[in-house]
Amino acid sequence: MPTQNVLSPYTLSGLTLKNRMVMAPMTRSRSNNEGNVATTLTAEYYAQRATAGLLITEGTFVSPKAVGFINVPAIYSEAQVEGWKLVTQAVHAQDGKIFAQLWHVGRMSHPDLHDGELPHAPSAINPHAKAYTHQGFLDTVTPKEMTVEDIAQTVQDFKQAAANAEAAGFDGIELHAANGYLFHQFFVGASNQRTDQYGGSIENRARILFETLDALNGVIDYSRVGIRFNPSTHNLFGMVIDEQTIPTFEYIIKRLNEYGLAYIHLTEPFTDVSEVPFAAPEVASHFRPLYNGTLIINKGFTKEKADRVIAEGNADLVAFGVPFIANPDLVKRFAIDAPLNEPDPQTFYTTGTLGYIDYPALSA
Questions:
Q1: What is the DSSP string of 309-330?
Q2: Nearest to 54 by CA among 319, 307, 287, 255
Q3: What is the mean pLDDT of residues 322-330?
Q4: Is a pLDDT exceeding 60 seen at residue 241?
Q5: Burial zone of 139 (CB within 10 Å; 0-12 exposed, 13-18 middle, 19+ buried)
Q6: List of domains in the chain
Q7: CB under 8 Å, gap of 24 or more: what pairs does 148-156 form?
Q8: Residue 245 CB contacts under 8 Å (≥ 6 apart), including other chains
Q9: What is the Cα–Cα distance from 203 to 258, expressed in whole angstroms?
Q10: Percent of the chain having pLDDT more than 90?
């Protein structure tokens, strides 16, 4: 058997991927229009990068209550679905595969984004972070604790968003359960101090995720559903690792073996947690033995590191973020060991074409 590496093909739940390179979901804030609709500009951006084995879109909001960032293309209205059709058609025309990442930020928002109302969260605890509003980055506030009815509505919002993604022509969806957003907030004790069926025990704190998955049954095949986790997030976005954090993710990921998902998408720690009690400093190697399906790993990978993690068997696919922003032809550059364009962080969240579709590809 030939050695498998990041440039080798892969079969993902019946989808043939040209390589094992995944474009990670990254907020780009280009939908500065009424209704926050994906446009032909969005379509060009993703089509430029369709040589990746799999594209995962920027997080797309499942409802108005889910919003936590300006100018993000959402997926809860008919106009938004039509906008995303431009994207999927453009990617498929380049023989690409694309999943929509479904997003609810929970408390990582601001009243300015909700007509003055408080954002929703598992518990009324301020994450002491920043939310990107029309006035720039503003301090988060203490959110409204969700009622059981709010939670049930949120589950239905994800169900409808999955149906909308199907209607828009996506090859699948990814539930965003990482990086301090709503699902993650339910999982972690620092953000979830509920005493009802959604708090306290590990099973209770994971309940909303499995209720959402169960609601997707009949809407989209589980083989077209992925989930993203960042288990070792610590002192970021209001997340704090305690003695139950990693066991909670272990419980979730082992239980997900029952669902036949497309993949789980894990992120290595954003910060050094090697000295943090109860953390898992090496996420891929920690969780790989627990999950039988496809595992994607992300965060700071080079081509060499990606080849190594695949060869070691700790991941099947590797997601690249910022390198894909600056290098629409990242796959080709890896294939011929060409140098990479340098990204411009000043244009990551701006509007227009600058720093979006104008990074040069290699000449023929």
A1: HHHTTS-SEEEESHHHHH-TTH
A2: 319
A3: 98
A4: yes
A5: exposed
A6: 10-317 (3.20.20.70)
A7: 148/196, 148/197, 148/198, 150/120, 151/198, 151/208, 151/211, 154/62, 154/63, 154/65, 154/66, 154/104, 154/120, 154/182, 154/208, 155/208, 155/211, 155/212, 155/215, 156/215
A8: 187, 188, 189, 231, 278, 279
A9: 15
A10: 98
> What does the alpha-carbon distance between residue 322 and residue 302 come to, in Å, rounded to a whole number?
11
Which pLDDT score, from 0 to 100, does residue 1 have? Answer: 42
Residue 364: the pLDDT is: 55
Residues 63 and 157: beta-carbon distance below 8 Å: yes
Q: Quick count: other Cβ atoms within 10 Å of Cβ 136? A: 9
Question: Which helix H or strand E contains 182, and what residues bound it?
Answer: helix 182-187
* Residue pointed to by tokens 């969780």: 287
Mean of pLDDT over the chain = 97
Q: Which is catalytic among the residues 10, 46, 181, 349?
A: 181
42-76 pLDDT tens trace: 999 999 999 999 999 999 999 999 999 999 999 99
Q: Residues in the chain, how many?
A: 364
Cβ(334)–Cβ(15) under 8 Å? Answer: no
**Is residue 181 annotated as a catalytic residue, yes or no?**
yes
Indicate the SS3 state at residue 361. Answer: coil
| Percent of the residues in the chain that have a pLDDT greater than 70, as a whole number | 99
CA distances, 146 to each of 106, 113, 121, 168, 298 (Å): 10, 17, 6, 30, 31
State which amino acid sits at residue 165.
A
Q: Distance between CA 76 and CA 157 in Å, rounded?
A: 8
What is the average per-residue pLDDT within 307-336? 97
User: Rounded CA gap, 10 and 113, in Å?
Assistant: 40
- Stated as kind and residue range, the H or E segment containing 304 is helix 303-311
pTM of the model: 0.97
Q: What are phi and psi of 258, to 5 degrees?
A: -75, -15
Name residues whose C-beta falls within 8 Å of residue 37's C-beta, 6 or more positions apart in sequence.
Answer: 31, 73, 77, 79, 80, 82, 83
Tokens 């290699």 locate to 362
For the stretch 258-313, pLDDT in tens is: 999 999 999 999 999 999 999 999 999 999 999 999 999 999 999 999 999 999 99
Mean pLDDT across 105-128: 98
